[in-house]
């Protein structure tokens, strides 16, 4: 008998399933007999519990399992016979008024949509480019020098200036009460590097060793300490030590300490340029890929399967809870997170995934083994032992799947850019790196 699929609304469909009661009861009996051979109950030896006792104790749960299994099997067979691509899980409910000897169920489910890819020939995409300048290399060298700086105590009458490391005692009060995290002794921070709130740094800047000061500090409304967010505290701070920073010279010794093969200033700058150019390349690829994907999605027409969107919402919520937990938030796994916070993001992800999958299928844009290998080699090239990194990728199916997905995205982006009108735009290195 052919399976009848009823269209309800947009992507929603319904199939009616029929199951003979005898088939269900027969499977229940088989499972109860199997259970009776191993079940342990007080007053009976293992394997000697009477069937009527086993049935009385476990009959309902076994019947529930069998019903679930049989209905699931029947739905899978019906969907396969009807050649429908089921999205998400079906909602199954038992129908009343079934013929004698049968149980009937309605299975309501969604199907994946038909994706209509739009004409890309009239679309425009802004393709970014950027160069690694000498200034960018200089800035990177300054960062490396700061990471290797040493400190020496300043003279007793010296005032704290930007770049100094200061050791202080402080106590902050809100409404006359010390708040959590508002008091510390021998606390160190670097002046002018944003480790403390601006008002705190400004108060300490210019102070001398042994000096104390009181000052008000207004906490931002979005401050991570919820007890004091948006409130003004009265602080007292005492400077106990002031140390001046000493940055290493840019010379062969610095290059050698950084493990540069050619331990020279020229070798150091060449190595930094190589690393920055690799980072620029990946960032440009990401930005240009996103611009291409945006055009692809804008031009496509499709309905979204809400069951798949909801699954993505749940995945995003779990990720948010994991992030809260990592940040030490108490009971993060129970945090109430409304679905609507993530629904727009979930819809965008599902829409993009469906459109990209259709483009890949219709234009044979799957990743080739050669492309995957080339991408892994490029990722590994920045490490000291590239061959170990290559083995690490090839040794795990999940990692390989992630690489394959990246390559497919690149293939899709290149295909889109070959179809649209491309406008080249050069941006500065700093602007590119400022974008997350």
Model description:
- It contains 12 helices and 11 strands.
- It is α+β, with helices and mostly antiparallel strands and 436 residues long.
- The protein folds into 3 domains: 5-110, 2-Layer Sandwich (Alpha-Beta Plaits), CATH 3.30.70; 150-246, Chitinase A, domain 3; 261-434, Trigger factor, domain 2 (Orthogonal Bundle).
- The strands form 3 sheets. Strands 6, 7, 8, 9 and 10 form a 5-stranded antiparallel sheet that branches. Strands 1-2-4-3 form a 4-stranded antiparallel sheet.
CATH architecture of the largest domain: Orthogonal Bundle
Shape: extended
Largest sheet: 5 strands, antiparallel
The termini sit apart by 57 Å
Q: Roughly what fraction of the amino acids lie in strands?
A: 15-25%
**Which residue ranges are poorly predicted, with pLDDT under 50 across at least 5 consecutive positions?**
none
Secondary structure layout plus pairing:
Elements: E1 5-9, E2 12-20, H1 21-36, H2 51-82, E3 86-94, E4 102-111, E5 124-129, H3 134-147, E6 150-153, E7 165-174, E8 177-190, H4 198-204, E9 212-218, E10 232-246, H5 252-257, H6 265-299, H7 306-326, H8 339-363, H9 369-380, H10 386-394, H11 397-419, E11 421-426, H12 429-434
Parallel strand pairs: 5-11
Antiparallel strand pairs: 1-2, 2-4, 3-4, 6-10, 7-8, 7-10, 9-10
Notable traits:
3 domains, alpha+beta, Alpha-Beta Plaits, four-stranded antiparallel beta sheet, Trigger factor, domain 2, five-stranded antiparallel beta sheet, extended, Chitinase A, domain 3, 47% helix, 436 residues, single chain
Describe, in short, the structure shown:
The protein has twelve helices and eleven strands.
């Amino acid at each position: 008998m052919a399976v009848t699929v009823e269209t309800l609304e947009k992507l929603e469909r319904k199939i009616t399933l029929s199951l003979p009661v005898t088939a269900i009861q027969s499977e229940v009996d088989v499972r109860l007999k199997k259970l009776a051979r191993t079940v342990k109950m007080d007053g009976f030896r293992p394997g000697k519990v009477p069937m009527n006792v086993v049935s009385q104790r476990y009959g309902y749960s076994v019947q529930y399992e069998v019903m679930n299994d049989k209905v699931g099997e029947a739905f899978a067979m019906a969907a396969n016979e009807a050649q429908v691509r089921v999205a998400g899980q079906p909602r199954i409910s038992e129908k009343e008024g079934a013929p004698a000897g049968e149980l009937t169920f309605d299975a309501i489910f969604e199907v994946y949509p038909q994706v209509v890819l739009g004409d890309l020939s009239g679309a425009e995409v802004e393709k970014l480019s950027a160069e690694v300048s000498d200034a960018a290399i200089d800035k990177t060298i300054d960062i490396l020098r700061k990471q290797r700086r040493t400190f020496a105590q300043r003279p007793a009458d010296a005032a704290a200036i930007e770049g100094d490391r200061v050791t202080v005692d402080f106590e902050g009060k809100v409404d006359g009460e010390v708040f959590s995290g508002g008091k510390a002794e021998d606390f160190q921070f670097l002046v002018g590097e944003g480790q403390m709130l601006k008002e705190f740094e400004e108060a300490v800047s210019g102070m001398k060793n042994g000096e104390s000061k009181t000052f008000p500090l207004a906490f931002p409304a979005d401050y991570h300490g919820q007890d004091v967010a948006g409130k003004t505290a009265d602080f007292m701070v005492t400077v106990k030590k002031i140390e001046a920073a000493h940055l290493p010279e840019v010379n062969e010794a610095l290059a050698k300490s950084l493990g540069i093969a050619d331990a020279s200033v020229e070798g150091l700058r060449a190595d930094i340029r190589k690393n920055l150019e690799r980072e620029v390349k990946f960032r440009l690829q990401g930005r240009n890929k996103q611009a291409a994907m945006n055009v692809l999605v804008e031009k496509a027409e499709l309905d979204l399967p809400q069951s798949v969107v909801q699954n993505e919402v749940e995945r995003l919520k779990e990720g948010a809870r994991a992030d809260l937990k990592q940040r030490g938030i108490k009971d993060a796994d129970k945090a109430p997170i409304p679905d609507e916070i993530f629904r727009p993001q979930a819809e965008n992800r599902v829409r993009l995934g469906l459109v990209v999958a259709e483009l890949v299928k219709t234009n044979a844009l799957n990743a080739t083994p050669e492309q995957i290998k080339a991408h892994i080699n490029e990722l590994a090239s920045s490490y000291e032992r590239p061959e170990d990194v290559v083995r690490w990728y090839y040794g795990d199916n999940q990692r390989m799947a992630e690489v394959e997905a990246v390559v497919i995205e690149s293939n899709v982006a290149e295909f889109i850019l070959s179809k649209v009108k491309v406008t080249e735009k050069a941006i500065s290195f700093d602007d590119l790196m400022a974008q997350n």
